[in-house]
Write a structure and sequence with these properties.
The chain is 59% helix and 4% strand. With 200 residues, the protein is mostly helical. The chain has one domain. It has a three-stranded antiparallel sheet, with no helix packed on it. Strand 1 and strand 2 form a beta hairpin. The longest helix is centred in the C-terminal third of the chain and has 36 residues. The chain is elongated. Belongs to the L6 tetraspanin family. This is Transmembrane 4 L6 family member 1. It comes from Charadrius vociferus (Killdeer).
């Protein structure tokens, strides 16, 4: 299979995943579609880290754009070898994929921390805004009876668990795809854009 075509295929997948990360992170800001909690700063500190918008989103859009537009790239100074300019472009895509690795890793780490610490909510016990599940180290995820401790925002535990889990999964897939592209870019750069000098 052509290394260039494989890279563009990865690029389109990263584009879709990055857009989904951005949407999921935006939804975290508006529990149950309400804006008042964001304006009153009553959201988890991990929501405000922008891990889906910046990490899994814009930092992954960089390699996506580079990989999708790879067939337009060329570079000089390769001593006139056929397809060598495009081979250089494949090697440069490794740097873009590394940026995607960093962004997706940031998304994974913050999502895992958000799941571990739990939501920031108003509890009926302390009558205050706190992190009621911080000491459980993620154990609250399986203690459904405790979820009712959070009174506001309504169903905030389900909201956070669902969206942080989605971001964790999307970040993991992005990380794997970017890692695959690093290998693909190195092989494509060393072997030529296409095996057998197939024209793209």
């Amino acid at each position: 299979m052509c290394f260039g075509r494989r890279a563009r295929c990865i690029g389109y997948k990263l584009l879709i995943l990055a857009l989904l990360c951005i949407v999921a992170n935006i939804l975290l800001y508006f529990p149950n579609g309400e804006t008042r909690f964001a304006s009153q700063h009553h959201l988890s500190k991990y929501v405000e880290c922008l891990h889906g918008i910046v990490g899994g989103g814009f930092l992954v859009l960089i390699p996506a754009a580079v990989l999708i537009g790879l067939h337009n790239d060329n570079c000089c100074g390769c001593f006139g070898r056929e397809n060598c300019g495009k081979s250089c472009a494949m090697l440069s895509s490794v740097l873009a994929a590394f940026i995607g690795i960093l962004g997706s890793a940031y998304c994974i780490i913050i999502s895992a921390l958000g799941l571990s610490h739990g939501p920031y909510c108003f509890t009926h016990l302390g009558r205050n805004w706190v992190y009621p599940f911080t000491g459980s180290s993620g154990g609250y995820l399986f203690e459904y009876s405790r979820w009712s401790e959070c009174q506001e925002p309504h169903n905030i535990v389900q909201w956070n668990v669902t969206l942080f889990s989605i971001l964790l999964a999307l970040g993991g897939i992005e990380f794997i795809l970017c890692f695959i592209q690093i290998i693909n870019g190195i092989l494509g750069g060393l072997c030529g854009l296409c095996c057998g000098h197939e024209e793209v």
